[in-house]
Design brief:
It holds the Pfam family TseB. The protein has helices spanning about 1-45, 100-110; strands spanning about 50-60, 60-70, 75-80, 90, 110-120, 125-135, 140-145, 150-155. It has about 160 residues and is of the alpha+beta class. β1 (about 50-60) and β2 (about 60-70) form a beta hairpin.
């Protein structure tokens, strides 16, 4: 009897692990597919040569930000909107970097942990979105201009 209980518990544990892996993989697949399509679109229009990173950025409209280098070797961001809308490019030379955006937030806010830093377009302006948890364990989002590092928007204490 004890062997049967051990077998059943082992089997259920194995099954639970398999289900968790499937849920994580299948749940992330739409994001991965969207990012892959955006990368292919940016490359096919020769806006970017080498891709370093891509991620979904959502404000009013969802888009994918593709970061990498262009044919001149300059660090570039390509903003690929949903559908067939026109893509925008931004040379990141002389712009605020992700690290600088994080440092600005760390210097001005009570940050416990930074969750992410993403570049995107908001109101036709490139901004860094920095999401973080503060010392009170509340979620916060701040938006900094990628041009000059000025604060554009703060969503605090969520």
């Amino acid at each position: 009897m004890r062997q049967w209980i051990t077998f059943i518990l082992g089997f259920l544990s194995f099954l639970a692990v398999i289900i968790i892996i499937l849920v994580l993989f299948l749940g992330n697949k739409p994001y991965t597919d969207t990012e892959d399509r955006a990368i292919e679109r940016a490359k096919s229009e020769q806006l970017i040569e080498e891709v370093e990173r891509a991620y979904v950025y959502t404000t009013v409209n969802a888009s994918v930000t593709v970061l990498g280098t262009n044919d001149k070797g300059e660090l570039t961001a390509v903003f690929v909107p949903e559908g067939d809308s026109e893509m925008q490019t931004l040379s990141l030379t002389d712009k605020i970097t992700a690290q600088q955006a994080r440092e600005l937030v760390l210097n001005e806010m009570d940050v416990k942990k930074i969750l992410h830093t993403k570049l995107g377009m908001a109101n036709e302006e490139p901004v860094w979105e920095v999401a973080f948890v503060d010392e009170k364990d509340t979620l916060n989002y701040v938006y900094l201009s990628a041009d000059d590092g000025q604060w554009r928007k703060r969503i605090l204490n969520l």
